[in-house]
Amino acid sequence: MTKEQDGSPQTLKKTPSSNSLRPSASSVFYDSWFRWDVLSSEWDVLWLSTILKLLLFPSYRSTDFEVHRNWLAITHTLPISKWYYDTTSEWTLDYPPFFAYFEKLMSVPASLIDPKIVDLNNLNYGAWSVVAYQRSTVIITELVLGVVLLKGSIEPPIQRIISASIFLHPGFLIVDHIHFQYNGFMYGILLWSILLARNSNKLASGVLFAVLLNFKHIYMYLAPAYFVYLLRSFCLSSTGQVHVKNFLSLANAVIAVFVVSLGPFALMGQIPQLLSRLFPFTRGLNHAYWAPNFWALVTAADRVLLKYAQLTGANIVINDSGVASTSRGLVGDTVFAVLPNVKPIHTFIVTVALQAVWLVKLWTNPSYKSFLTALTLSGWTSFLFGWHVHEKAVLLVLIPLSLLAAERQAYFRTFVLASVAGVFSLFPLIFTPAESIIKVVYSTVWIAAVYIPLSRRVYEYPNSISLVVMDAVEKVYLAGFPLLLMFVSVFPLSGGKSTVNSASTSMETCLSTDGFSCPEPQTGLAQDSLSAAPMEFLPLMMTSIYCAIGLVWSFLRLGFIYLQEESKYQGQLSEIK
Amino acid sequence: MDADELSALPTEGSWKRSNRIRTTSLNPRYAYTNPSPATTRAESPFRPPGTTADITHSDVPTILAPTPRRHLLESSASQHWLNTPPLSPLTSSRALSPQSASTATAFSFPFPQSSSSSSAHVSSTASNALHTNTHSVRRRISSHRRSFSMLFERDQGQGVPGSPGERVVGGSAHKGHEPDERAMGRRWIRWMHKRGLKAWVVPGILVVSLLVKLAVGLGSYSGQNTPPMYGDYEAQRHWMELTVHLPLNQWYTYDLPYWGLDYPPLTAYVSWICGIVGHWINPAWVALDKSRGIESAESKVFMRMSVVVTDALVYVPALLMFCRTWQGSRSKRTQELALLTLILQPALLLIDFGHFQYNSVMLGFTLLAMSLFATGQDLLGAFFFVLSLGFKQMALYYAPAVGSYLIAKCLYLGPTDGARLFVRLALVTASTFILLFLPWLPPFASFSAILQPVTRIFPFARGLFEDKVANFWCASNVMFKWKAWASSGALVKLSTLLTALGFLPAVVGLVRSGIKMQVLVKKKTESTAHAAENKDPAPFLPLLPYALLTSSMSFFLFSFQVHEKTILLPLMPVTLLLSGAPIDSAVYSWGALINNVAVFR
């Protein structure tokens, strides 16, 4: 960037008078872009998005809203020693301590605005005051993301489109501003940490990531890449000697962060209780609605094989509980009928093994771009192969991947595939009709606003037969999404009224706030769905499988690019050491 | 040329930079701050006669950048915002363009104290040109500087306070962020154009406006959760229910106390169609009597979507057409900006998509009529205006203006053509009305049946004004207790009188201009004019928005039984004017002010 800045006045001086028009025109553009476009256009984005978010105040909100309200009440009324023991509400506190402190902080203004908000026994409080307050805290804390992107978008103009696209990401709109969570704030911290890494302030980057981990432990998905990157590029020199000073400062800083976070609870001897809240390993392989990952494909394959076995009477050992699991649709634990069952240890092994591939590559090439790719792939691996992954975790893939999008055509296509599939997979979170229209329109606008300006900048002609075929297949895949959308929205109408209701209740069965902490689905619901139409989960299943195909494919794509072409191709991000 | 060579010629570099800045100032806003051609010419003494490039001074620019031709065109073009033909080579000749440019910079919209001298100058120019130049030139010069005050000035040679802007002064001076947002729109359109994304601007505007409408619709509507009567939402839904289930002759008579239908037949027909669709999707939404007060999320979505769809079918195309016809002489960007301004008009968004009504259909039909008038298709325009009347009787607020425009056009065309047009217009108008009211007319119903809709549409039995209307009656009610002073009948007469007084200037102005123009046409050679003129809009067409504003505002302020939502009617012409006005003109600030005041009512 700095190079570009220095360059522009020089080109102005050097411009020959004979053909001065074009270069000077471009530098004019550059100047004007710098003079007034920066601030005002950033303000435009902020104001417009804020207006839209304000309009979304009265929209549907999931029980995550009540979860967070309950946490406000817990942290406000109870002493710190009881935070992780309280069970007044079923939505117990299951985020790490920094988030609890954060809620404590927010509960102070809340108690001033309306004392009922922080009343522990005032369950399911839904007055206008609490809605407005909690929704505005989301908007305000999301400014962290905005500021970080503002600081980070000093790249060429193309990076500004990326920044705007992250700030306006439909994932945030759906999950934060309709469904209700604080992802904008969290990803703000993550991107801040990444930005610091880019600016070679690796100590601060590591500390911020430790802070982030203590806000929300789902970012452990990304931790391996951070660990390897910081160890290799900060604690070791390029020849492999240990920088003791760097190592000690980083280790001490990270430990200090954890002490601040967990210290009080360690002193009270509550660490086991805290961990049991954070990591409840009592869940099934798939989430209530299958997250679009590898296991969704495996489950689907199992269903297909079961059907095949039932139809043809082939000699396959069929697990009876797996058959029951089929008829129960997507709710509850997943037991395979034909394929061997998957245990948590299996998913763990697969995840670690695949992550190791990226981490070895990162160890050999610890540049910023390599780090970014490895980070994305690390999160992606966990998302695709993890145990009981929640579909909201797809943001862990999409946000870092956005930073790579403008690098070149291969990355851009990966980004488009993953974004479309990932955002679409978030759609079932919002099932109320009015908000459904908004989520679709908004996501369409967003993908168009990102795709149209960026695609022409990074376009490369496919130069081999396989690339042409791949390009065509991917386009067909993308074109399938409108059809899938039509199917998903029309199917409930044709299937009768009960479908919509039970599908919606099934979505409400899991109200967890992240991948680990899903409260048990209501037991009564399995019985309900047993009696319901067998095909009622078909739209959700189709969504899950179709999105999983795209996400797995783009994962392979990015992995291939990372391993094969990373060193050959030098893009704008490669210049950052 | 290398950098070394260039350093030998430092002045050229500086010249280039200044020239570069000038060439970037193609947006009209910058053209104002630019020196006018006259001042540019004043610099010319610095330049020695016969200057060549080899004379180099360090402080005096060697080559004086000639003011590009484009600037003259831009600066004048940005003022005449209405449908003017593109400048022909003849009109942009040396003799004319500086004059037009200088008057254009001094000319601001019809505020007499600032523009009396210059606009008098214009009118003399116009009359000179009239006699010397061809017909098209006369039309160009005279048509794009027309306002009511101009008319009077030309007749009497002095400024007369007749500006419509002054009459609508009311309320406190809220300084909203409208100019800021507008600049935002400008910036965005500019950005899109620079990125080569021109083709996506209009679709982008449409989709974003759709998003805003849907998001506004997430909120509550009028009368939500307030039994037993609920609100406008329930009224509209109730009409769907009764039009679907009842025969036509009961539409205007069924259970009147519970939201009896009180809009003209087109509303009923639209409700009927919506009701059929609703019935097809879910009969419970529109079940007769049983669905009263239904507030399920699905039915709400259906109702909201019905507004969005009717809006997309009528109002959005009308806006597109308006921007293409009335702003036809302007740049693409200005047209897009006008579309953005119009489509996101906050009051309409709030009332239609938040509060819940179908005003955009009525406004859309009126807009279509205006656009058709502008393209010279008066009959079709009249048809659409009758549709507008047939959708909501509120469109009557515009009727004086539209009617007097058409009459003026008839007068303008002269006895034979004018009479022919008059008869045609009368036929079209009458037959459209008959078509709309057909089910209540003799062959299909008894003679008295027509009274059913009519008495429902014009309820003089209600009070003088509703609760919190910001009109004259309300404002003055603080001082004079009108209801205590006079009987209902007397108040009706008084309000009618005041309303008529209010819109009289507009009517008189239009008709008068029609007569005047006719005289002018007669002075001209009569061979070419008539046949061509019949297809073209009348030259006083630019007065139409002002007339609409004056007329609807006078209705809003003085007429009987005014609902606060009717502020939408005067707001539309204001926004139309606003959309065409440059950001620093008087019309713009008035439009922004009125829009803001209206929203905070």
Summarize this structure as a short list of keywords or feature phrases:
heterodimer; A: 577 residues; globular; B: 601 residues; mainly alpha; 0% strand; disordered N terminus; EC 2.4.1.- (chain A)
Radius of gyration of chain A: 25 Å
Largest interface: A-B, 40 and 40 residues
Could you list the spans of chain B in which at least 5 consecutive residues all have pLDDT below 50?
1-57, 67-145, 157-182, 463-470, 525-533
What is the overall number of helices of chain B?
29
Helix and strand element order of chain A: HHHHHHHHHHHHHHHHHHHHHHHH
Our measurement of the CA-to-CA distance between the termini of chain A, rounded to an integer number of angstroms, reads 13 Å
Largest sheet of chain B: none
| Overall shape of chain A | globular
Rg from alpha-carbon coordinates of chain B: 27 Å
Total number of β-strand segments of chain B?
0
What proportion of the residues of chain B is helical, as a percent range? Answer: 55-70%
Poorly predicted runs of chain A: 1-38, 326-332, 496-533
Q: Quote the beta fraction of chain B.
A: under 5%
Q: Please, what is the average pLDDT of chain B?
A: 66
Please count the helical segments of chain A. Answer: 24
Query: How large is the share of residues in beta strands of chain A?
Result: under 5%
Tally of DSSP β-strands of chain A = 0
The geometry of chain B reads as globular
Main beta sheet strand tally, sense and closure of chain A: none
The helix-and-strand class of chain A reads: mainly alpha
What structural category characterises the helix and strand content of chain B?
mainly alpha
How would you describe what is shown here?
- Chain B: Its EC number is 2.4.1.-.
- Chain B: Residues 1-61, 112-140, 152-179 are annotated as: Disordered.
- Chain B: Residues 21-42 have a biased composition (Polar residues).
- The complex is a heterodimer of chains A (577) and B (601).
- With 577 residues, chain A is an all-alpha fold.
- In chain A, 69% of the residues lie in helices and 0% in strands.
- Chain A has 24 helices and no strands.
- Chain A is globular.
- Mean pLDDT of chain A is 77; it is low at 1-38, 326-332 and 496-533.
- Chain B is mostly helical.
- Chain B contains 29 helices and no strands.
- Chain B is globular, with a radius of gyration of 27 Å.
- The termini of chain B are far apart.
- The relative contact order of chain B is 0.10.
- Mean pLDDT of chain B is 66; it is low at 1-57, 67-145, 157-182, 463-470 and 525-533.
- The A-B interface holds A 13-18, 20, 24-25, 28-29, 32, 37, 40-41, 44, 47-48, 52, 55-59, 432-435, 437-438, 441-442, 444-445, 448-449, 452-453, 456, 493 and B 1-3, 6, 12-13, 16, 20, 24, 181, 183-184, 187-188, 191, 194-197, 200, 204, 207-208, 210-212, 214-220, 281, 297-298, 300-301, 304-305.
